[in-house]
Design goal:
Elements: E1 3-12, H1 15-27, E2 32-38, H2 41-57, E3 60-64, H3 67-74, E4 78-82, E5 89-91, E6 101-108, E7 123-127, H4 136-150
Parallel strand pairs: 1-2, 1-6, 2-3, 4-6, 4-7, 5-7
Helix pairs in contact: 1-2, 1-4
Length: 156
């Protein structure tokens, strides 16, 4: 079964972070980006700018109030939560073994990691060979690239 990777940017207030995540996701060939719990500038300016980019490229942007809404509505086979300090598995150039179906990859849009309650039930992952938090866009670039190139075509 092929893997469909869908990035999720959760709990974000930065306009630039939303736009950068959209550019990154779409440039990797992904069709869908999900933004959950956007507030402040991200909600007022970042989401509209990312929507403009999505429409221009023929891609999708899904904006939802909570992470659980994305999980409930998109019915993923797996949820990966990017958590540098509590990772159970590491994602490297070979991707991540055992993934199939629809995979949501959740990146924290703010400085704190995902709250343990938000990551409940998810596979907690981080980047092989990287020590410490490098920020959500760098994390997304590496993890999404490894997942897409390491284990078949994961374009969503």
């Amino acid at each position: 079964m092929p893997v469909e990777v869908i990035p999720v940017l959760h709990n974000v207030s930065s306009v630039q972070r939303v736009v950068d995540m959209a550019r990154l996701s779409y440039s990797l060939g992904l069709d869908t980006l999900v933004v959950t719990k956007a507030y402040g500038g991200a909600a007022q300016s970042g989401v509209p700018e990312a929507m403009r980019l999505a429409l221009k490229l023929g891609k999708s942007l899904v904006v939802l109030p909570e992470l659980r809404d994305a999980v409930n509505l998109l019915s993923p086979t797996h949820v990966l939560a990017v958590t540098p300090s509590r990772a159970e598995r590491l994602v490297g150039p070979g991707g991540l073994e055992g993934l199939e179906g629809r995979v949501l990859v959740v990146f924290s849009g703010g400085e704190p990691e995902l709250d343990p309650s938000e990551a409940a039930g998810a596979i907690r992952v981080y980047i092989e060979g990287v020590e410490g938090k490098v920020g959500p866009i760098a994390e997304a670039a590496l993890i999404l690239y490894f997942l897409l190139r390491g284990g078949g075509d994961g374009r969503g």
